[in-house]
Predict the 3D structure of the following.
Amino acid sequence: MRLLITGGAGFIGSAVIRHVIATTDWTVANVDKLTYAGNLESLGPALASNRHRHYPVDICDRPALQAIFREQRPDAVLHLAAESHVDRSIDGAAPFIQTNIVGTWTLLEVALAHWRGLPADERSRFRFQHISTDEVFGSLGPTGLFTETTPYQPNSPYSASKAASDHLVRAWGHTHGLPVLATNCSNNYGPYHFPEKLIPLCIIRALRGQRLPVYGRGENVRDWLHVEDHARALIDVLQRGQPGETYNVGGGNERTNIAVVRAICAALDRLAPETGHRPHDRLIEFVTDRPGHDARYAIDSGKIRREIGWEPRWTFEAGLEATVRWYLDNRDWWERVMSGAYRGERLGLTT
């Protein structure tokens, strides 16, 4: 199979490429313009594979995309390229509108023309798979789960832009017959995670003895999914999913933010006592909550388990410990990342 993966140098996209190169004989065209959160080092050993090729192209650049499609003739597109940080979308929504909405539309147009020009047997096998988030559903109360039929109610500029992209993909499938698949996932964590997100940011700041900012009282709940489990799910859906269908992917690991931060601190107490900051939870500092902060996300993964046969392999406890160990063992990676434009400062303060 010839895959075209957008955003393949990002956190989830790089995990998918690592999984594909390690477990299949497929080739990958990696379309990633390398924004601040894109890093080819995140591909690990896959970067050196002769079955991977990187194209430093913006998904809004239609002529460049058309040239890649003509050259690679992909059997499937996995669309992961997106601006993805809620706090950044609060500070400035323009990149989210451009990449997540205009970029998705551009990619759909190019993929549709490519699909229409394929021979009948290749056209029947082609898939356009869109990777989205549970944040499009809005905020849950203390009970209940997001399902594939939950109405959309995005509450941040980021989630609104992803909701728009989801609707575009569905419309291109319904109107034009493009064989589309979609997934909505819960919060990911694991190795190679850009350190603006909660888990890597807290690990790195704790190792440096810096304060660990927690929004409000830390009572917001998220369902945590290890990125390697997510990568497997995406390939399973690509191979066994029904065109036109959406599949929710969750880890079944609901935790409050403060519980996650305290678990990180406890892991560092055990694994990195030499930092001199034990107990690390004394670094926790409650700060003014994020504007419009959703209270709770939780995914019902029953459909993907029943119809696709996917199951998460990582428990949150084992996955978090492995993630902390990875950041301890890969200081060179995150120090190079932190030496760039992002320094660990708080974002999303504007209202």
Remarks:
- The longest strand covers residues 127-133.
- The chain has a mean pLDDT of 94.
